[in-house]
Amino acid sequence: MAREQPPRIANQYYHIYNRAIADHLLFKEDRNYVYFLSRTQKYLSNISDILSYCLMPNHYHLILKLKTNDLSCAMHKLALSYVVSFNRAYGQKGHLFQGTYQRKHITDLSYLLHLSRYIHLNPVKARLVKKAEQWDYSSYQDYVGMRNTDFINPKPILDLISDKSNIELTAKQQAYRIFVEERYFERD
Question: What CATH number did the domain enclosing 160 receive?
Fold first, then answer.
């Protein structure tokens, strides 16, 4: 029996994720990550605010705030365009993803903040890098002021760090860095 997916509701937050089939890789080279991000921007930025992401060699995570209810169509276009390009580049045929994307409706803002940290720490946990800021294929650098990707909107999550409107962006970015790093150092 198929697992029932949560509804897609505009102006709500969603954790979107998927992984490669078996032990395959979704991203073999830098250009794969870059292409996936370009497709993400093309297909998702019109229907959602892209709050954060992390692309790992065999899976990805996105946090979106939907503007419309057109997520399924946009995700289908994103996945199809990526798979066709990937298969063409590597002389492969068939499926790349384990199935259709998964989504989790996020209704708790505290969970949203902690999910963002979890996503940004994925490369550290997988021992791909020592610090989250070293992984180029996540939005963490956008959150801590090291980069400003035009289609990433960290503001809703950074605002959760401090609900005081008079706090400067750089202070929120530093607070987010501390929030993420304290979790990493707790595990050492």
Answer: 3.30.70.1290
d(CA 71, CA 171): 33
Whether residue 174 lies inside any domain: the answer is yes
Q: What is the CA radius of gyration of the chain?
A: 16
Beta-strand runs (E) in 3-95: 13-19, 48-55, 59-66
Residue tagged 């199809």 (tokens): 80
User: Does residue 7 belong to any structural domain of this protein?
Assistant: no
pLDDT in tens, 88-137: 999 999 999 999 999 999 999 999 999 999 999 999 999 999 999 999 99
pLDDT digits (tens, 9 = 90+) for 152-186: 999 999 999 876 666 888 999 999 999 999 866 55
Q: Residue 1 falls within a domain, yes or no? A: no
User: Using CA atoms, how far apart are residues 120 and 125, in angstroms rounded to an integer?
Assistant: 10
CB 39 within 8 A of CB 62: no
